[in-house]
Every structure is written in structure tokens, then in C-alpha cells.
Amino acid sequence: MPDAGGQPKSKENDPEQLSRLIDLELAQKRAAWKEGASRRQKIRVASFLFLFLLIIASLLAFFVLSSRLNQGRANPRATPTPAGSQH
Fold first, then answer.
1. DSSP assignments along 49-80, one per residue
2. Residue 72 and residue 75: Cα distance in Å, rounded?
3. Fewest 10 Å CB contacts: which of 3, 26, 54, 84?
4. Would you put residue 6 in left (φ > 0), alpha (ψ -120 to 50) or beta?
5. Backbone angles phi, psi at 75, to 5 degrees
6. What is the pLDDT of residue 5?
7. In angstroms, rounded to a whole number, what is the distance separating the alpha carbons of residues 57 and 52?
8. Predicted TM-score (pTM) of this structure
9. Helix, strand, or coil here: 86?
10. Nearest to residue 40, comparing CAs of 57, 25, 73, 32?
């Protein structure tokens, strides 16, 4: 007895059609996995870049502060005299 599509109805599925459907499903899953891996790689690169910039900024701040402290120790400022105590 033929179905609505005009094809004879068989109780057994065509093995070749099943194989094609499985291949299609696996190809779709593989594409989804690659997309997910690409996102994870972008996030990983961004996080390493952020950490690198944070470390560079910390080293730069340490260098600037330590050089200013060393300048302050080498050249102590004279204490200003109050304006009211001048004779």
C-alpha cells in the first residue's frame, strides 16, 4: 500500500538513507563543536591579553613609583618657613 508521497510503504528503513541522515547529523554537530571551540579560543586569547596588559601596567606603575621615591630620598626638600615668622 503506497503512502501519500506515492512511494511504497516499507516496514524496514532504507540503510542508505539512514546512513545519509546520520552523516548529516554528525556534520551538523561537528560544525556546532567547531563554532564552540572558536568562541572558547577567542575568550582564551582575550583573557591572556588582559592579563598581559595588567602585568605590564603593574610593572610600569611600580617603576614610576619607585623612581619617584628614590628621587625624593636623594633630593630632600627644604622645609618652608612660615610667612608669619619672618623678621
1. HHHHHHHHHHHHHHHHHHHHHHHHHHSPPPPP
2. 5
3. 84
4. left
5. -120, 80
6. 55
7. 9
8. 0.52
9. coil
10. 32
In the structure, how many helices (H) and strands (E) does the chain have? 1, 0
| Amino acid at site 87 | H
CA distances from 82 to 10, 85, 86 (A): 108, 6, 7
Q: Which three cell numbers stand for residue 80?
A: 618652608
What is the torsion angle, in degrees rounded to the nearest 10, for the CA atoms of residue 8, residue 9, residue 11 and residue 16?
A: 60
Q: Give SS3 for 20.
A: helix
